[in-house]
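in:
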């Protein structure tokens, strides 16, 4: 690359010169630190495994994972120490699976969200657990003014995972909520296309890749 030249001259002119060779520039951003998430699930080996996998394959930085019934201390740790930007709450299979623990966890997360003073726009929560109580879960979050996205169950049956559904929910929240909170909307509204490199890596590559090659699009990583 041209980084050694930039270091040698002490400015970014070599990079600018290189960029001028391309018709379209598509900057990539890790959104000032990347997409930080925690997961809250019912068990470590089943819903916990699926939740962590969904977060990681969506390009998130997984800060912590919690399993079982959250305590008030757990909730404090989530908001005061972990400080996630998105929370993934899951647990219980459909049609008769656990409901008590996911409802408890939803309530304690909602009750403690006031501790998240670091987040100007709040902490969105994705619920992808037992669909038998999805209306109750949505009501809990709505009463506490929490941006919530209710998806299909991440694990509707034991060892049957719905990873892509949760991947898509994470990407949507990143684009609509997290970028706003990180102050990147100004760049977008000014006409600059900004993408989170880690999250964009999770998207499926389509036939459009031929168009990208044809027009010499240049993705530039702007980490930090």
């Amino acid at each position: 690359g041209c980084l050694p030249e930039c270091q040698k001259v002490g400015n970014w002119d070599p990079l600018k010169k290189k960029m001028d060779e391309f018709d379209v520039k598509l900057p990539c951003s890790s959104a000032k630190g990347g997409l930080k998430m925690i997961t809250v699930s019912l068990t470590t080996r089943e819903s916990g495994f699926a939740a962590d996998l969904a977060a990681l394959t969506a390009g998130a930085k997984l800060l912590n994972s919690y399993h079982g019934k959250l305590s008030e201390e757990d909730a404090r740790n989530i908001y005061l120490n972990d400080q996630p930007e998105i929370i993934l709450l899951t647990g219980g299979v459909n049609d008769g699976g656990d409901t008590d623990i996911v409802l408890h966890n939803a309530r304690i997360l909602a009750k403690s969200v006031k501790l998240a003073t670091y987040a100007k726009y709040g902490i969105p929560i994705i619920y992808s657990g037992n669909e038998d109580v999805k209306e109750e879960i949505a009501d809990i979050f709505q009463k506490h003014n929490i941006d919530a996205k209710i998806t299909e169950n991440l694990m509707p049956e034991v060892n049957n995972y719905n990873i892509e559904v949760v991947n898509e929910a994470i990407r949507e929240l990143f684009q609509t909520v997290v970028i706003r909170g990180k102050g990147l909307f100004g760049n977008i509204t000014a006409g600059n296309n900004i993408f989170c490199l880690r999250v964009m890596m999770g998207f499926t590559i389509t036939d459009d890749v031929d168009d990208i090659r044809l027009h010499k699009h240049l993705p530039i990583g702007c980490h930090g």
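note: Strands lie at 24-29, 36-41, 61-67, 86-89, 125-127, 148-150, 217-222.
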